[in-house]
Amino acid sequence: MDPFSFAVTADLVVLTIRDRALHVLLVERGIEPAVGQWALPGGFVLPDEDPETTAYRELAEETGVSTGLHLEQVRTYGHPARDPRGRVVTIAWLALAPDLAEPSAGSDARAAQWRPVTEVESGILPLAFDHVAIFTDALERARAKLEYSALAMAFCPPAFTIAQLRAVYEAVWGVPIDPRNFHRKITGAPGFVEPTGDVVRDGGRPAQLYRRGPVGQLQPPLTRLGR
Fold first, then answer.
1. Beta partners for 149?
2. Rounded to a whole number, what is the distance in angstroms from the first to the last CA of the chain?
3. N or C: which end of the chain has fewer CB atoms below 10 A?
4. 61 membership: H or E segment, kind and range
5. Of 20-24, 41-45, 82-86, 136-140, which gets the smallest average pLDDT?
6. Structure-model confidence comparison of residues 116 and 67, the more confident one
7. Residue 163: burial class (beta carbons within 10 Å; 0-12, 13-18, 19+)
8. What per-residue confidence (pLDDT) applies to 3?
9. With helix as H, strand as E and coil as C, how does 115-179 read?
10. Average pLDDT of 154-178?
11. H or E stretch including 16?
């Protein structure tokens, strides 16, 4: 076998919060293989591209989403039988952003939609290729990083209330969180968040606005319930 006879792709797991629930961006494939099936957005790395450039390009071409994203690499998938077209190695990316607009399908996608992650997790919505495994790994990466990093703030506007930040944790983890304990842990972690000096009305009561602090690690970590 020619060691250079394989292709490289970039696939994306794009997460956002809509109606207080975590959603993933999916496309309906318009070409074979797996035509008509739902899949993660992505595509082949072109000769003059690096995989990250491909990820941004494919995301824009297939869905119309191109700005306001936090993008990080998850892992590489290279099982010989993962794509019926031949040997294809894919690099998976995790993208997070708050309040992303409705996607618009383009390129080789028939449709693009935000779908609740629970549909994929439960098996109600099957995905093409090995995209369920990619989705599962990326989702677990996002959930785990919320325990100790500032990743949740990628879902928030620049200035946010602690209640808004707690809603992100609850949506991503899928569990309720005690408001008082959460407030104490978040505001008690040195440098994790810092007050802006402004307040807003949150549920009729004034609530202080915060922004991301200079420290990107949450110590001690905020452990998920049920783990």
1. 217
2. 45
3. N
4. helix 51-63
5. 82-86
6. 116
7. middle
8. 58
9. EEHHHHHCCCCCCCCCHHHHHHHHHHHHHHHHHHECHHHHHCCCCECHHHHHHHHHHHHCCCCCH
10. 93
11. strand 7-18
